[in-house]
């Protein structure tokens, strides 16, 4: 922070000097005052509220009320009244000797063009040369949404958002395919910017507080954010009060959620019948007490959710302000899982010196409390655990049999009730901004923000927990504070010279991130479970090895940037944009801490040419082309490129002079040449509109190539290096694809309107290289799923020539005459015993070839109906859950699905993970349908009240045999279902939105 404020000092001096210059403004000699009243209307003679009325050249101003009425005092008949309102042409009227002046404002068609946020500024949609998609608040998805990223699901071409039913899990967000093989620190996620604050946490916002979201896709648009923009940039603009507007709004919904699909397992009687049919029996009492227990029904429940949002705000000629409060409670459909979040937000902006100086302050706090369970254990055991056993003993304790082997060895209900996991997270952000209009067209902006993320995690596995047998209670407490300070200082110069329009940007950024300021400790052996994790002092470990500390050192990372951009337009026909950013980061090697990220793009508004005037059907036709380079520096700390000393995880202590001492030695090699990954994107696009934009859309083709891929496990010789693995920039990965967006208003009458929008995106992903002359590796094996006798096996491979998420599996050849599964060996022969790891072969990948979404909205008088259909095609899912369950031989100790009833009991290989369980992940989902009615009472105090009912995940069409085909597509092991999928939910919602 000291460095930041040192850098802030000169900028404050500049701002002070500017204020002194502004303070020399002269004022006209005061004469006898005259009060003028009137009404401002539009072209249809409808009163216009919120019109700013000022006496030209002075600070004297007012705002029209809800009826368009204003009253203002002038000092002379020579004074000129200025009337301005966003979307209307400004108008000036000389006061004269009139005491009533009524004014009609005319719609400004140019000003009504869609405004797109492009980073450190805005642009009209007509002037945009990059690939940018804007989603307004009225287009957002409806439903029980725990993070704003879900608002965009199915709405943006090329943006794939996937989420399970877990209320505490963040969705995986991938834009235009994966561009890295790293997963830590959000390395695969887009970069978020909230109201101009780069890197702000998206969890700070409630969906109801968001006005619009702009998705910057190609590098010609994202390169202005330099080393953090390789995965795209998502810019969020929050709601602000408009001039003359005084608003109070309240929105709320209640929802009920249930599991949309379950795996069809055998009941107790069905399992007994299956075993009897095959001459087998269960061990009495221990494995069969005569019960018929449906563990899925006992573990799962109906989830009830509620959301409340209240906000108010107002704006005058010189001030706008507002505040909001949001409360969300989302109970998961697995018992003891829930999320509770409260978000408070307030802002105020004040303008001085005839609106030439603007000072603003925004404060936001988000507090989230999450209750969770050991999900991986519960999700697995609720399927595998024997249905022939009851949950409880006669004394009410949970029935357990720890000596039982197999996959389902722990009572699922016991796992839920005897293991407690609680996360308490508090995020806050304070953002101050100063804007000065220096001269006509030249504006200076200084923005300073501070973010805090305090995360506390507590867990307690009590003395009856099957995960901590004989531990007498196992407690963990973690408390970490992450802070981020950002200073943005930049100048914007916007001027129009005849047919020439010029926009210039020059700026400087300083950011400091401090992470892992805290500790974590685990201890055991409590005398009782009464206090849980609340007093670790009461633990009594037998030796020091039973106390473990987190190895998370504090890290301080700094980023300094210089950037500039030029936008030029001639006659609104020929468009040009170029930008350059120079980023310096302390995370990388001393030889490569600075990097340049250039971008250039151009556009041609063909529809503005004279030769297009005769083609009346075409209202918009624009050609765009751009090239740029952006970077990926996410997931690194200040030690990433340094020689690090620490304790080995496997041999951290030794005996020295009779004392146990920590072993300290090198644990990471130094790499002075380590730098960020760079993504170069070429984008060619066409925007079009026909029949006065009744039909509009765009087509984009892109090639996105990431070089200098970072991998931290390159093998090196210990004769040259301290540690046998090395972190280096070596590989490259390529994404190429095409995106199509089509919007239309097929029907538009006085009482009925139908709007529809369709988007589709095709992407091809391929790993191009993993080696160079110095560091060589042929492939990287991933997805070690385990399972009976398969702990050595990897199910995916990262290899040049193939996509990330490529499956590498045994090839299933069917059953032999004895009903035993057979597989193909590497030499082409057939085997009826478990193959070797060298017998695997490549077969499909988890990357979808097509992502699509189709939105429809119907409006009839005060009724509205909307629905969203979305889906993917061409991807594969490895159903390792079904493979592990398909184990007839072990059906005496664990349950099996109905699928296995068709298997031979003698099939000793049925459970092996092979391409037999590699299934199509294609699906079509009715994601949302909403019916609403808006009531507009004839009163000034109530603007509107809308009631609505909504259903989410109403149905899905798929061939996938698992719980749901919407698998996580993030990370380096996408598309795998391995007893770890929190069930997808189906929800029904009743809600209300009221504006006052």
TrEMBL record:
Signal sequence segment: 1-28
Alphabetized Pfam families for the sequence: CarbopepD_reg_2, Plug, TonB_dep_Rec_b-barrel
Gene3D superfamilies, per the entry: Carboxypeptidase-like, regulatory domain (2.60.40.1120), TonB-dependent receptor, beta-barrel domain (2.40.170.20), TonB-dependent receptor, plug domain (2.170.130.10)
Subcellular location per the Swiss-Prot or TrEMBL entry: Cell outer membrane
Keywords tagged on the record: Cell outer membrane, Membrane, Signal, TonB box, Transmembrane, Transmembrane beta strand, Transport
Predominant subcellular localization, coarse grouping: membrane
Keyword Amino-acid biosynthesis included in the entry's annotation: no
Family recorded in the similarity comment: Belongs to the TonB-dependent receptor family.
Protein name: SusC/RagA family TonB-linked outer membrane protein
Species for this entry: Chitinophaga oryziterrae
């Amino acid at each position: 922070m000291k460095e930041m404020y040192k850098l802030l000092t000169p900028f404050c001096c500049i701002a002070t000097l500017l204020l002194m210059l502004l303070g020399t403004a002269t004022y006209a000699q005061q004469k006898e005052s005259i009060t003028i009243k009137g009404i401002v209307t539009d072209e249809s003679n409808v009163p216009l509220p919120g019109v700013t009325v000022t006496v030209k050249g002075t600070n004297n101003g007012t705002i029209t009320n809800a009826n368009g009425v204003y009253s203002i005092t002038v000092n002379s008949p020579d004074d000129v009244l200025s009337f301005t309102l966003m979307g209307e042409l400004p108008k000036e009227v000389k006061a004269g000797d009139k005491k009533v002046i009524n004014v009609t404002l005319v719609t400004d068609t140019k000003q009504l063009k869609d405004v797109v946020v492009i980073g450190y500024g805005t642009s009209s949609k007509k002037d945009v040369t990059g690939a940018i998609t804007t989603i307004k608040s009225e287009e957002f998805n409806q439903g029980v949404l725990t993070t704003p990223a879900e608002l965009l699901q199915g709405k943006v071409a090329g943006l794939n958002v996937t989420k399970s039913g877990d209320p505490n899990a963040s969705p995986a967000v991938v834009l235009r395919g994966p561009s890295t093989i790293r997963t830590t620190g959000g390395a695969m996620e887009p970069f978020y910017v909230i109201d101009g604050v780069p890197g702000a946490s998206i969890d700070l916002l409630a969906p109801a507080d968001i006005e619009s979201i702009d998705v910057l896709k190609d590098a010609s648009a994202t390169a202005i954010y330099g080393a953090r923009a390789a995965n795209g940039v998502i810019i969020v603009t929050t709601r602000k009060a408009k001039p003359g507007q005084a608003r109070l709004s309240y929105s709320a919904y209640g929802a009920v959620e249930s599991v949309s699909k379950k795996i069809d397992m055998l009941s107790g009687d069905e399992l007994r019948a299956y075993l009897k049919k095959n001459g087998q029996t269960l061990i009495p009492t221990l494995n069969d007490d005569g019960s018929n227990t449906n563990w899925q029904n006992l573990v799962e429940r109906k989830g009830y959710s509620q959301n409340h949002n209240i906000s108010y705000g107002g704006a005058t000629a010189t001030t706008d302000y507002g505040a909001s409060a949001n409360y969300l409670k989302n109970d998961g459909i697995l018992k003891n899982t829930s999320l509770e979040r409260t978000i408070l937000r307030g802002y105020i902006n004040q303008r001085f010196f005839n609106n030439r100086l603007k000072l603003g302050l925004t404060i936001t706090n988000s507090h989230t409390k999450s209750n969770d369970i050991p999900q991986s254990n519960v999700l697995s055991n609720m399927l595998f655990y024997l249905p022939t056993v009851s949950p409880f003993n006669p004394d009410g304790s949970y029935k357990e049999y720890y000596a039982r082997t197999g996959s389902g060895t722990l009572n699922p209900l016991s796992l839920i009730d005897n293991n407690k996991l609680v996360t308490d997270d508090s995020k806050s952000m304070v953002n101050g901004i100063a804007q000065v209009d220096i001269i006509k067209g030249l504006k200076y902006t200084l923005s300073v923000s501070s973010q805090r993320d305090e995360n506390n995690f507590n867990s307690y596995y009590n003395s009856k927990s099957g995960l901590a047998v004989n531990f007498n209670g196992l407690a963990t407490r973690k408390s970490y504070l992450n802070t981020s300070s950002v200073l943005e200082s930049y100048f914007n110069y916007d001027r129009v010279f005849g047919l020439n329009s010029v926009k210039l940007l020059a700026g400087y950024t300083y950011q400091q991130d401090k992470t892992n300021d805290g500790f974590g400790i685990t201890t055991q052996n409590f005398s009782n479970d009464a206090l849980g994790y609340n007093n670790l002092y009461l633990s009594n470990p037998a030796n020091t090895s039973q106390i473990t500390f987190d190895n998370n050192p504090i890290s301080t990372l700094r980023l300094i940037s210089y950037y500039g951009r030029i936008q030029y337009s001639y006659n609104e026909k020929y468009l040009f944009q170029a930008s350059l950013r120079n980023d310096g980061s302390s995370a990388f090697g001393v030889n490569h801490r600075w990097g340049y990220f250039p971008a250039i793009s151009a556009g041609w508004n063909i529809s503005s040419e004279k030769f297009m005037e005769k083609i009346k059907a075409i209202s918009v036709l624009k050609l765009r082309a751009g090239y740029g380079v952006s970077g990926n520096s996410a997931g690194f700390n200040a030690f990433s490129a340094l020689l690090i000393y620490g304790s080995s995880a496997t041999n951290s202590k030794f005996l020295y002079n009779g004392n146990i001492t920590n072993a300290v030695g090198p644990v990471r090699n130094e790499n002075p040449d380590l730098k960020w990954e760079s993504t170069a994107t070429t984008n060619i696009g066409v925007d079009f509109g026909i029949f006065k934009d009744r039909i509009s859309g765009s087509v984009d083709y892109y090639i996105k190539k990431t070089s200098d891929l970072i991998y931290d496990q390159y093998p090196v010789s210990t004769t040259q290096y301290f540690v046998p693995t090395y972190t280096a920039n070596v590989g490259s990965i390529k994404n190429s694809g095409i995106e199509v967006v089509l919007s239309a208003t097929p029907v538009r009458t006085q009482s009925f309107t139908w709007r529809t929008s369709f988007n589709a995106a095709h992407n091809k992903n391929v790993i191009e290289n993993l080696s160079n002359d110095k560091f060589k590796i042929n492939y990287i094996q991933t997805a070690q799923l385990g399972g009976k006798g398969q702990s050595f096996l990897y199910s995916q491979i990262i290899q040049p020539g193939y996509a990330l998420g490529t499956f590498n599996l045994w090839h299933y050849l069917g059953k032999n005459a004895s009903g035993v599964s057979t597989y193909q060996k590497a030499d082409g022969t057939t085997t009826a015993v478990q193959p070797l790891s060298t017998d695997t072969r490549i077969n499909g990948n988890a990357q979808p070839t097509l992502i699509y979404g189709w939105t429809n909205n119907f409006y009839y008088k005060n009724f509205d109906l909307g629905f969203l259909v979305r889906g993917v095609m061409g991807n594969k899912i490895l159903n390792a859950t079904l493979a592990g369950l398909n184990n007839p031989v072990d059906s005496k100790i664990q349950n099996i699905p109905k699928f296995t009833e068709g298997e031979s009991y003698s099939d000793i290989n049925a459970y092996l993970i092979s391409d037999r369980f590699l299934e199509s992940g294609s699906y079509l989902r009715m994601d949302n349908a909403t019916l609403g009615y808006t009531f507009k009472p004839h009163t000034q105090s109530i603007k509107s009240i809308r009631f609505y009912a909504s259903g989410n995940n109403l149905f899905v069409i798929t061939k996938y045999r698992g719980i749901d085909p919407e698998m996580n597509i993030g990370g380096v092991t996408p598309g795998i279902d391995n007893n770890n999928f929190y069930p997808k939910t189906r929800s029904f919602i009743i809600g209300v939105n009221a504006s006052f």
